[in-house]
Amino acid sequence: MKKLIVLTPLTLLFLICGFFIIYLTSDKDPNMPPSALLDKEMPFFKGVSLYNSNQIITSKELKDKKILINFFASWCVPCKIEHPLFFDLSENFSELYILGINHKDPQQEAIAYLNNEGNPYNFVAVDKDGSIALEFGVFGLPETFLIDNNGKIIFKFMGPLTKEIINNEIEPLL
Amino acid sequence: MKLNHFYKFLFYINLFTFLFILKIYANEDISERVKKLTLELRCMTCQNQSIYESEADFSNDIKKIVRAKIKEGKSDMEIKKFLSDRYGEYILFKPLFDYKNLFLWLFPFIMLVFGLFFILSKTRKK
């Protein structure tokens, strides 16, 4: 009993110190909190095409497909950096459905941006008021999500994608 | 007859004034709730600022959502859950009291009990 009384606070102290050391030395970036939607079902959304307002896409139509959802805008500078990488992805993985969500962008500017940079997306949906971004918990552009055939979000990345991220993290999931 | 019309007119004037004041109070109440709630929410794109204090695009969107949800009659808890379901618990300055955070909330009390137990056993010996 005497030993227990002395050892318990000491053990607890070591446990707390160990927890803090592991937490502080881990690669966790407080500016990049984990997505609340990871491993959860893709939220429902409905998007109008950037090019034709009569064309509408819903998340229900995309079931049974592997989908890469990329939130972008013409005013977003980092989006330009990652943009060419989507061409490689669409070339190498023809079965992958790449959906671009144009976030809070004037229509003409978005179209001009895709004319200049090229359009790697299978469909470009407009998110004029940010409601689709809200459903996906997006708070900065660009953001990319990978959804599996069962409609589950299996990968999320905040910021511009790089070749390394695509090779090491996205391609193994495709 | 004329007096009757006058009373009717007076009645409508009073009714409109009453409704107008009621609306002002209701709006003030909503604004107060928006302020209180957004002070407890983290601006995800800022450095240590609440949604209320921030003028970032993201914060203004969340303020609009919070206001809309309050008008829909949602409770503070429901609004917090709606946001944390999408943005994660990181958006809340104060973590929720649920099974995942149980240890976090109860740990100080566990330590207190241990500490008291330790002090008591030491003083008894003396």
Give a quick rundown of the structure.
The complex is a heterodimer of chains A (174) and B (126). Chain A has 174 residues and is α/β, with parallel strands linked by helices.
Describe the secondary structure blueprint for this structure.
The complex is a heterodimer of chains A (174) and B (126).
Chain A: H1 2-25, E1 46-49, E2 56-58, E3 67-72, H2 77-92, E4 97-103, H3 107-117, E5 123-127, H4 131-135, E6 143-147, E7 153-158, H5 163-170
Parallel strand pairs in A: 3-4, 4-5
Antiparallel strand pairs in A: 1-2, 1-5, 3-6, 6-7
Chain B: H1 2-39, H2 57-71, H3 76-87, H4 102-125
Features:
heterodimer, A: 174 residues, alpha/beta, Glutaredoxin, seven-stranded mixed beta sheet, 7 strands, 37% helix, elongated, B: 126 residues, mainly alpha, Helicase, Ruva Protein, domain 3, 2 domains, 4 helices, 71% helix
Give a structural overview.
The complex is a heterodimer of chains A (174) and B (126). By secondary structure, chain A is α/β, with parallel strands linked by helices. Chain A has a single domain (36-173), classed as 3-Layer(aba) Sandwich (Glutaredoxin). Chain A contains 5 helices and 7 strands, in the order αβββαβαβαββα. Chain A has helices at residues 2-25, 77-92, 107-117, 131-135, 163-170, and strands spanning 46-49, 56-58, 67-72, 97-103, 123-127, 143-147, 153-158. A 7-stranded mixed β-sheet of chain A has the order 2-1-5-4-3-6-7. Chain A is elongated and about 80 Å long. The termini of chain A are far apart. By secondary structure, chain B is mainly alpha-helical. Chain B folds into 2 domains: 2-94, Orthogonal Bundle (Helicase, Ruva Protein, domain 3), CATH 1.10.8; 96-126. Chain B contains 4 helices and no strands. Chain B has helices spanning 2-39, 57-71, 76-87, 102-125. At the A-B interface, α1 of A face α2, α3 and α4 of B.
